[in-house]
Amino acid sequence: MRKLSIGLVFSLVAVMAFTFAAVDAGAADTVKLGFNIPLTGDNPDVGASSKNAAEMYLKKHPTVDVGGKSYALKFVFDDNEYKAESAVKVSTKLITEEGVLGIIGPQSSSQAVPAGEVANNYATPMISPWSTNPNTTLDRPYVFRGCFLDPFQGPVAADFATDELGAKKAAVLYDIAADYPKGLAEFFKEAFEGIHGPGSVVAFESFTTGDKDFSAQMTNIMMSGADVLFTPQYYSEVPLIVRAAKEMGWTKPILGSDSWGGGDLMGLCGDDCKGYYFSTHYAAAGAKGDTKAFIDEYTAAYGKTPDDVAALTWDSLGLMVQAIKDTGKLSGDIKADRTKVKDALASIKNYPGITGAMTFTADGDPKKCAVVVKINDEGKFEFFKSVCPK
Amino acid sequence: MEETLAPKQTGGLFHRVGLFFKPVPLLGYLLGFLACAIWEQSAGEGLTVLLGLPKMPVLFGLLTIFKVLAGIINFLIKGDAFNWATWVYIPAALVYLTVIYLLPLAIVARAVVKPANALARFLQRFPLIVTALVQLGLMYAVLHVWAEMSDYRLIFLKLTLIAVLFTLSLNIINGYMGEFSCSHPGFMAIGAYMSSLFTVGLFASDKVLGEAVFNVSTAYLTFPLALIFGGLMASMGALIVAIPSFKTRGDYLAIISLAFLFIVKSFFENMQALGGSRGISGQPDWATLPVIFITMALGIWTINNFVTSTMGKALNAVRDDESAAEAMTVNTRKTKMTAFLFGAFWAGVAGGLLAHVLRYVNPAMFSVQKLAEVLAMVYFGGLNSVYGSIVGAVSISLLGEALRPLEILKWIVIPLLLILVMIYRPTGLIAFKEFDVRQVFGPKEVE
Question: Predicted ipTM?
Answer without folding.
Answer: 0.90
